[in-house]
Amino acid sequence: MNPENQKIIEKLKSGNELFLQTGKNEGDVSLAIRKKTAEEGQHPYAIVITCSDSRVIPDAIFSAGIGELFVIRVAGNVLDNHQLGSIEYAFSHLDANLIVMLGHTKCGAISAAQHSHGTTDRYIKYIIEDITEAIGDEKDDYRATVLNVKHGVNVIKNAFHDHPEIEADELDVVGAVYDIETGIVEWI
């Protein structure tokens, strides 16, 4: 792993510890930082792909403020060309070189995939199909979540392994699971 990205992971871990201790987001959302990022642009240190579940708030979980995380949210943290394009934008144009695939416990999309026997929903079926590909017939909630995260990590690595704008060892992709009850992030 790139040493700079290892430092960022340590920053995220420290931010999660702060979140656990205080129970709130300690990130900077002040007028000064809003003004600074409006004038100078955003320079996030990490890209976080996570579920759109309202109980999962990456900025709070990692005690991050405005301009620190580039967050991509979609149910079940599945990936298609839109999310991959957002990732590409963040590392190509914003120089964010650490990607965190963040799953979470008690994910409704994973539960739907585990208990799906075909759905009549017009668009949800695409999410369920992707998750089913990732988890197979795994019925344990946590193990299915880990499998889904690992699948996402592999999709990202495969999508960008030969990208012309990425130098060797510049971009790192890691997986993590957020426990919605305890607030703890476990790194995979």
From TrEMBL:
It catalyses: hydrogencarbonate + H(+) = CO2 + H2O. Binds 1 zinc ion per subunit. Zn(2+) binds at C51, D53, H104, C107. It is an enzyme of class 4 (lyase). It comes from the Bacteria. Its cofactor is Zn(2+). GO terms for molecular function: carbonate dehydratase activity; zinc ion binding. Its EC number is 4.2.1.1. One of its GO terms (biological process) is carbon utilization. It holds the Pfam family Pro_CA. Keywords: Lyase, Metal-binding, Zinc. PROSITE patterns: PROK_CO2_ANHYDRASE_1. Belongs to the beta-class carbonic anhydrase family. This is carbonic anhydrase.
